[in-house]
Amino acid sequence: MRIFRENHVKNILELGCGQGRDTKYFAEQGFDVTGTDYSMQALSELNNIDRITTKYCDLRSKLPFENNTFDACYSHMLLCMAFSMKELKNLMSEVRRVLKPAGIVSYTVRHTGDFHYMKGTSHGENMYETDGFIIHFFNARMIQELSAGFEIMQIKKFEEGALPRKLFEIIMRKNPG
User: Fold this and answer.
1) Which domain, by its residues, includes 53?
2) Can you give the pTM of this predicted structure?
């Protein structure tokens, strides 16, 4: 959130907002938030909350927003879903398109140091299925590949939850042009 304040962010695109834990927090902090998700039910829980707009969309398709619309884009573990690298590159290209010049991207992903990495059934590209759920694990090379058109400002490791999950927090700025 500090990065958003420091860069005078007013509106945030949240990818994969789910039930809106982070969406609500950002709105409470005074940001206008557009939450996207593939679940209409999850989005319906966020309707009619001040400063929050919701949009149903499949993130494997073109984002339903105009060029240069958002000051920032945020997602928490969305990129860990069963997206191929090609799909992730397309998504990041779309994020770049809808961000304003010098827009900020903040996202988190589980990394290859995580307890669940290489557990369960492999689906290739560092994706493993456990209990019917596919998780995409990231390494530094993958983050570099997804940063085309962005300046990486920070890559930080952190832990979350009881296991704990081991994650990267990546912050990038859209390159001009």
Assistant:
1) 2-109+139-162
2) 0.96
